Amino acid sequence: MNTPLWVSELAAAFWEQAGEEEPFPRDLRRGVVLGLPLSVVTIPALSVGGVRRWLARNGVNLVIAAPERSLRACLVARFGRGIVFLDAADPPDEQRFSLAHEAAHYLRDYWKPRQEAVKGLGPGVLEVFDGRRVPSPAEQVHSLLARIPVEAHLHLMERSPEGFASDCRVRYAEAQADRLAFELLAPAEHVLAGSPERDHLVEVLCRVYGLPRAPAQQYASTLLPEGEQSPWLLRLGLRR
């Protein structure tokens, strides 16, 4: 199982910013606060309305164009900084994965596009990302030629009444955030170095790396897809 290059690069950038990698199971809070311009806020019974009220109480003038619904976590980012909201009622493993997921959104969907745009167009382009102005014709042309998106960041909170991602763009962003979150909490190379058996992999991901069971099952199917053998068995030349 080859880890996508962008996943490895962003995970490495996170730990470089954080200063050092954490032991397992990773909490990530220290790394997030020290390595990224993010704050972490926990709110009981987290919801869209709860996020709106917290922002209003703290003088943050920001419109969240999403209908009221309960949330497990939420990222609000603006002007290069952000806040990760977590549901205080969630157990530690769920909060751990939620924080990793929202940090992954920040890195992939917010921080990386800004860094690439600045590299190609200069720091003035951040005014476009922050919604202060529209891109100039020259910025639009360079954006198209270099395939660097230059636009104010859009939210990814669209959901169906049942709570599912409402379009392919949101579903793709959520899947990519999950993939990076997995790498931050349980790096594929480290997990597979232990030569886990498929039947035990979910338990290893929960017990050693602190993943909740549902995400652990999802990650296990990525690390060892159906029909693929354990790296340990392959090294021995054994077949199931």
From TrEMBL:
It comes from the Bacteria. This is IrrE N-terminal-like domain-containing protein. Pfam families: Peptidase_M78. Residues 78-110 form the IrrE N-terminal-like domain.
